[in-house]
């Protein structure tokens, strides 16, 4: 894999990555804030292009780091390189029928999976750091924090209907 | 005042329409100016206000260009930068000069025409590369460096064209003194400048505006070309926080530059008896000589003449800098010729940039 970056006057910053299979991916951060992404297959002639807004590009980036995501669920992974590469994932989920009407303590989320629910979004109201006796309703969006493995356990334990 | 309002309203409509169709807008401002002004309906006449706003447009364009000049970036791409730039300069300047002289312009007029003939529009080129999604092409990087080279050559042109009017030694001495002053301001005032330009209130935008017009005014007062000094000022500030300065200067550049273009068109006077064949000859040569230089650059930088077709297709349009040269140094007849060349080349250029693949195939067919 070869990665090079260059500043193009008037245009912005270009990152070009040539994969081990000789395909080319190039990302241009344009001065207007948008991002153009080009892919050029090995031995190909014409590249494919997509133009993304900054938030679309962040979402795409999150998918490419391997986070599990559906259209109404998103996740970010934060890495603290100074703290021996500590990685924390934050993921959103939507509460389904099986969890509705039950509380955080009652479900023993942290004891069983290690995941902590740090916020709940209900309608247009947000509850940050909900108390252990908080009762979920169907359709609540919850924000869960933990390691990637712990979040996977959480999904297996609770999110499978 | 009402003339200004009429002209700018027309420009607003043109801007909306051209953006919708992704056309280059600069030629339309000039056409609108010609239609409204001296050579057309005579609805709008230039006055002191429009002249002042046009001047602001020009100095902010040049200041903005100065901010983009970063010597360290150029040094890391020397080979492409110099080989493409020098070919581009030699061929186009020579063709422009010979053509203008042969068409009956005086030597001095021919020099101005040749400079305007050589310099492609950075704004149109960059926009067309982005909008036609061509950034990944190897040629695109070469084109971008060519534009930077042309900008630097423009600085040299401005120096040469303005020195012819005064004693070069005194001028060089004054320029050196001002450059030293800029260097000292940036060297010792950098922390202070960074603090001011990154504030959230109206101070950064006002600071940028006042600093640029002060530099322009002071240069005029001490007999220096203001154009050069604002570029130099921009280049000096490029070592502080160019992005912030660009952000602050951009609204002034965008608005006043439109005033500059439309009033340039308004001032264009075709009444001096202007044979159509001169305009057509210059415009065709302007397109042809870029093809010649493009093919040679393709051959030398990319190892294949076909790359030159792509370079040519994206650099045909002459624009803001040609108009700037015409308005600074051109006589009425020279300005009219350059205006016509800008209109024709930029319209043709936007077409060739969009369909460069088609021209590439034609090139392959011709070569067999």
3D structure, described in words:
- The complex is a heterodimer of chains A (161) and B (368).
- Chain A has 161 residues and is α+β, with helices and mostly antiparallel strands.
- Chain A has two domains: 2-64, no CATH class; 75-159, Alpha-Beta Plaits.
- Chain A has helices at residues 54-64, 104-107, 109-113, 148-159; strands spanning 2-8, 12-18, 24-30, 35-40, 48-52, 75-80, 86-94, 116-122, 125-128, 141-146.
- In chain A, the strands form two sheets. Chain A has a five-stranded antiparallel sheet. A five-stranded antiparallel sheet of chain A has the order 6-7-10-8-9, covered by helices on one side.
- The longest helix of chain A has 12 residues, at 148-159.
- The mean pLDDT of chain A is 84.
- In chain B, helix 3 packs parallel to helix 11 and helix 15 (320-329) runs antiparallel to helix 16.
- Chain B has a single domain, classed as Up-down Bundle (Na+/H+ antiporter like fold), CATH 1.20.1530.20.
- Chain B is 81% helix and 0% strand.
- Chain B is globular and about 65 Å long.
- Chain B has 368 residues and is an all-alpha fold.
- The longest helix of chain B has 30 residues, at 168-197.
- Chain B starts with a helix and ends with a helix.
- The chains are: A alpha+beta (161), B mainly alpha (368).
- At the A-B interface, strand 1, strand 3 and strand 4 of A face helix 7 and helix 8 of B.
């Amino acid at each position: 894999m070869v990665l090079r970056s260059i500043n193009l006057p008037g245009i912005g910053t270009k990152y070009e990555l040539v994969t081990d299979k000789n395909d080319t991916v190039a990302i241009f951060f344009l001065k207007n804030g948008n991002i153009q992404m080009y892919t050029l297959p090995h031995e190909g002639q014409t590249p494919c292009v997509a133009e993304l807004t900054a938030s679309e590009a962040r979402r795409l980036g999150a998918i490419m780091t391997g986070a599990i995501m559906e259209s109404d669920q998103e996740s970010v992974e934060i890495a603290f390189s100074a703290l021996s590469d500590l990685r924390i994932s934050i993921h959103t989920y939507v509460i389904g029928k099986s969890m509705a009407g039950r509380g955080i303590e009652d479900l023993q989320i942290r004891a069983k999976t290690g995941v902590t629910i740090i916020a709940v979004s209900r309608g247009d109201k947000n509850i940050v750091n909900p108390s252990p006796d908080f009762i979920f309703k169907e359709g609540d969006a919850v924000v869960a924090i933990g390691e990637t493995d712990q979040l996977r356990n959480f999904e297996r334990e609770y999110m499978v209907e | 005042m009402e003339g200004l309002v009429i002209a700018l309203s027309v420009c607003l409509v043109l801007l909306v329409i051209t953006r919708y169709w992704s056309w280059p807008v600069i030629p339309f401002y000039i056409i609108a100016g010609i239609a409204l002004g001296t050579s057309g309906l005579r609805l709008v006449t230039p006055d002191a206000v429009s002249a002042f706003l046009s001047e602001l447009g020009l100095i902010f364009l040049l200041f903005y260009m100065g901010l983009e000049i970063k010597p360290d970036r150029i040094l890391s791409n020397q080979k492409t930068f110099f080989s493409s730039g020098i070919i581009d300069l030699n061929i186009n300047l020579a063709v422009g000069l010979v053509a203008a002289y042969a068409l009956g312009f005086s030597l001095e007029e021919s020099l101005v025409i040749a400079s305007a003939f050589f310099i492609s529009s950075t704004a149109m080129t960059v926009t067309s590369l982005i909008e036609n999604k061509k950034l990944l092409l190897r040629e695109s990087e070469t084109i971008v460096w060519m534009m930077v080279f042309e900008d630097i050559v423009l600085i040299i042109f401005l120096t040469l064209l303005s020195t012819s009017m005064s004693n070069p030694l005194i001028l060089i001495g004054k320029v050196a003194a001002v450059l030293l002053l800029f260097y000292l301001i940036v060297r010792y005032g950098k922390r202070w400048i960074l603090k001011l330009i990154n504030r959230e209130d109206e101070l950064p935008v006002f600071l940028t505006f006042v600093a640029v017009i002060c530099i322009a005014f002071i240069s005029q007062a001490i007999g220096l070309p203001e154009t050069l000094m604002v570029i130099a000022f921009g280049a000096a500030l490029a070592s502080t926080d160019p992005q912030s300065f660009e952000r602050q200067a951009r609204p002034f550049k965008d608005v006043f530059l439109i005033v500059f273009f439309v009033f340039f068109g308004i001032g264009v006077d075709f009444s001096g008896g202007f044979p159509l064949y001169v305009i057509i000859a210059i415009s065709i040569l302007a397109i042809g000589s870029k093809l010649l230089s493009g093919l040679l650059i393709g051959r030398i930088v990319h190892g294949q003449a076909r790359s030159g077709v792509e370079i040519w297709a994206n650099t045909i349009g002459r624009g803001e800098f040609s108009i700037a040269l015409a308005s600074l140094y051109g006589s009425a007849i020279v300005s009219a010729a350059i205006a016509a060349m800008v209109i024709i080349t930029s319209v043709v250029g936007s077409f060739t940039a969009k369909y460069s693949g088609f021209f590439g195939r034609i090139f392959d067919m011709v070569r067999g």
